[in-house]
Design goal:
The protein has 18 helices and 17 strands. The protein has 757 residues and is an alpha+beta fold. The strands form 4 sheets. It has a 5-stranded antiparallel beta sheet, with helices on both faces. A 5-stranded antiparallel beta sheet has the order 7-6-10-9-8, sandwiched between helices. β1 and β2 form a beta hairpin. α16 packs antiparallel against α18. The longest helix has 53 residues. The chain is elongated. The chain starts with a helix and ends in a 21-residue tail after the last strand. 19% of the residues are buried.
């Protein structure tokens, strides 16, 4: 049986090795296919370039042995660079997948070095190609070709524009001659005068007028057209009714002839009676310049056919230089990255160990460069951190022990008032959770009145340059009114720098209430002593006056009787008040005996149910409530007082009073809840309702609830008042249990009564 797990482990190991071998073979096959494809592509490209060289013998570089060696060198360098990059990236990829620590850092460094190697080389190569391409494109700019191709059109457009202008002048001349009949022999002088004036006004080199038989009537040549005349063919076309222009190139220059018939009537244009010929000289050599432009354009087209080989030559040279630079930079980058990543990996591992709490971690590496200094500094830092951590732990334990064993609250802040630490008593006094205070500003985390008080104390310390400021007074704490003693102090270093502030909070509410109750008890004792003595003589004297003068006064004795009765009645009320004072001042000692609390409540309800028919009394008594020790008379007196207050709060109106008991086993106490549906007690009065001589009713003495609280306190219990939903008041009493019964159930006297009215 013991050999089965061993066989399974060897089998799993064999499967794992077989899987790794398959992955390695697959990776080798992929690499072989990639290299084969690259070599085949280089071979195809060489064949293509050889054919290009045969078609373009003016570029022997493409067909030379040097070029093919050059191209193979470029391919080999490209493969080496690609192999280096893929090898390192593949290695890093598998290390990242296996979760090798430091692989992410090495990946970033390798990628950074590759980027620093490839990016500048690529940018340089791209810009070089761009500039070379831009230069070649400027050599073979289409605008240049456009200039050559449009030269002929420019010359033709020149001929056309000039001919149209000349035709316009000829038309005007023909119109004038026709309208004014200037061809008649009587107006020959006017014709010559008109022709001379017209030539002087417009840029015309010659104007000639011919008769219907092609005979020259008058010709006005310019300086450049002395010997130039139109041919007979041109004149005959005009006499045939043709309107147009004829360009003509001569050894002396280029001419434009515009002809226009002269009609017998301009509107009908029937009979041609003559012709006008206008001549314009365009300059010498315009057509020859056009021929030279055409020859230059042919040479440009021949050179443009060689643009691609020129680009290839420059591209191959740049590619070779770029690959050489890239190979050297990539190889050097990997070398540098390897020298940096190993120490950095060790430092990263050490940092992780220190972050996990292992302050005793050390890095063992021998190096004299800056990385070696960094490793030594790291080791020294961990030693210092370990020593400092031990000291901080000792101080922290000491401070936490001190703070946990003091009764007043402590809140520590930084110099800007952000809370750094708070002890448990402070949380209890303020009624807040730790996360509601820590990392919050002090003035914003405290209740509004406390916040204002602390701000005033801080301002007083700053103004008077004091170290500590102490204030006392009532504040809102835990939604109650508490008497707190606040002490705000500044923590400064030996150099006087402010390190933070400490706020001490001491809850003196119970002490102040005890002092207040003791003072009122002494007042009550003295009042009872001083007032009670003269009450009896006053009452007796009033009665004697009535008996003595009743018979004497006769019918007027009614007034005396009414006055003496009033005196006696008021004396009784004062005696009742004095008895209340005496009861509060001289409270009897407890008589703790085992009793059933539910039975006491039933007795109290029975006293009030008959006298208050409009009030519904409901009892929800816990049958599991055990018998325990308490002073029956005093507890009954306290419950009567509370029930009496509940009845009075209804103001003689129908209402409901509920008395409920609970057995709180986890707290080892019995709970009494007395609630009513009366007018309730305002929230602002609930905090002072148990103070002596404080009453919300005009006729109240203010001692009833004070006596109730004292009874409960003497039993080491607690009492509180809350609002009853939806209306009214609820008093909750908790009494500690001192059960006298055995463990096994309630006594036979225990019973539950509910829903009675």
């Amino acid at each position: 049986m013991s050999q089965e797990p061993e066989r399974a482990s060897w089998k799993d190991r064999a499967v794992e090795l077989e899987a790794q071998d398959r992955v390695r073979k697959r990776r080798e096959i992929v690499l072989i296919l990639i290299f084969s494809a690259v070599i085949a592509g280089a071979f195809v490209l060489e064949i293509y370039l050889s054919r290009e060289a045969q078609e373009q013998p003016e570029f022997p570089f493409l067909s030379s042995t040097f070029f093919f060696a050059f191209w193979n060198l470029v391919v080999i360098l490209a493969l080496v660079v690609l192999f280096l990059a893929l090898r390192n990236l593949t290695k890093l990829f598998f290390e990242r997948r296996r979760g090798v620590f430091g692989a992410h850092l090495r990946t970033k460094l390798v990628l950074a070095f590759m980027l620093l190697s490839i990016l500048p080389a690529g940018i340089l190569f791209g810009f070089s190609i761009f500039f070379i391409s831009s230069s070649i494109e400027r050599w073979f700019d289409p605008a240049v070709a456009q200039i050559f191709s449009t030269s002929k059109e420019v010359v033709q457009n020149t001929y056309q524009m000039t001919g149209e202008d000349m035709l316009h002048y000829a038309r005007n001349l023909s119109y004038k001659i026709t309208e004014e009949r200037l061809l008649s022999s009587a107006k020959l002088a006017d014709l010559k005068k008109f022709i001379d004036q017209y030539q002087a006004e417009y840029p015309l080199d010659a104007i000639a007028v011919y008769s219907g038989r092609a005979e020259e009537i008058y010709r006005k040549p310019g300086d450049r057209a002395q010997g130039e005349k139109p041919s007979l063919e041109v004149i005959e076309k005009a006499l045939a009714g043709y309107e147009g222009y004829f360009p003509e190139a001569t050894p002396e220059g280029d001419w434009v002839w515009a002809v226009m018939p002269i009609w017998s009537s301009w509107e009908q244009k029937r009979d041609v009676v003559g012709a006008v010929v206008v001549t314009k000289y365009l300059g010498a050599g315009l057509s020859s310049q056009l021929d030279r432009s055409l020859n230059a354009f042919k040479d440009y087209q021949a050179l443009k056919a060689k643009e691609l080989p020129i680009r290839r030559q420059h591209f191959m040279l740049l590619l070779l230089v770029t690959l050489v630079v890239l190979f050297l930079s990539v190889w050097f980058g990997f070398y540098i990255a390897k020298g940096i990543t190993i120490p950095i990996q060790l430092l990263a591992e050490g940092t992780q160990e220190v972050a996990s709490g292992n302050l005793g971690y050390r890095i063992e590496m021998e190096s004299s460069d800056e990385l070696g200094v960094l490793v030594k500094s790291f080791n020294k830092m961990t030693e210092d951190l370990k020593r400092s951590q031990q000291e901080l732990d000792q101080r922290r334990v000491y401070i936490e022990t001190v703070l946990a064993n003091i009764d007043y609250g402590v809140i520590a802040t930084d110099p800007f008032g952000k809370i750094l630490a708070v002890n448990q008593p402070a949380l209890l006094i303020l009624g807040k959770k730790r996360e509601e205070l820590v990392d919050h500003f002090l003035t914003g985390a405290l209740p509004p009145d406390l916040s204002r008080q602390v701000e005033e104390m801080d301002a007083e310390i700053t103004k008077r340059e004091k170290h500590t400021e102490v204030r006392e007074g009532f504040h809102r704490s835990r939604e109650k009114r508490a008497y707190l003693r606040l002490s705000l102090s500044q923590m400064r270093s030996a150099s006087g720098e402010l390190l933070g502030k400490v706020l001490l909070i001491d809850d003196l509410t119970d002490l102040v209430r005890a002092q207040h109750s003791l003072a009122w008890r002494e007042v009550a004792r003295r009042i009872a002593h001083e007032i009670k003595n003269p009450l009896t003589p006053i009452q007796v004297s009033a009665q004697r006056l009535y008996r003595k003068y009743e018979s004497v006064l006769g019918e007027q004795g009614d007034v005396l009787r009414e006055c003496t009765n009033t005196i006696s009645r008021q004396v009784e009320e004062i005696k009742h008040l004095v008895d209340e004072f005496s009861s509060y001042a001289r409270f009897p000692g407890l008589k703790l005996e085992p009793h059933q609390l539910n039975q006491v409540i039933e007795e109290v309800v029975a006293l009030y149910r008959e006298g208050n028919p409009d009030v519904e009394f409901k009892m929800e008594l816990d049958a599991d409530l055990p018998i325990f020790d308490f002073d029956r008379d005093q507890i009954k007196r306290a419950i009567i007082n509370l029930v009496d207050n509940a009845v009075k709060s209804l103001d003689a109106k129908p209402g409901k009073i509920t008395l409920k008991t609970l057995h709180l086993k986890d707290q080892l106490c019995a709970r009494i809840i007395i609630s009513d549906t009366g007018k309730g007690i305002p929230a602002e009065d609930r905090e002072r309702i148990f103070e002596p001589y404080y009453s919300t009713r005009a006729q109240g003495t203010g001692l009833g609830l004070a006596i109730v609280q004292r009874v409960i306190n003497d039993h080491y219990g607690a009492i509180r008042v809350d609002g009853n939903e939806p209306e009214g008041t609820a008093f909750t009493i908790d009494l500690p249990l001192k059960s006298r019964q055995s463990q096994g159930g309630a006594s036979p006297n225990q019973k539950q009564t509910g829903g009675l009215s």
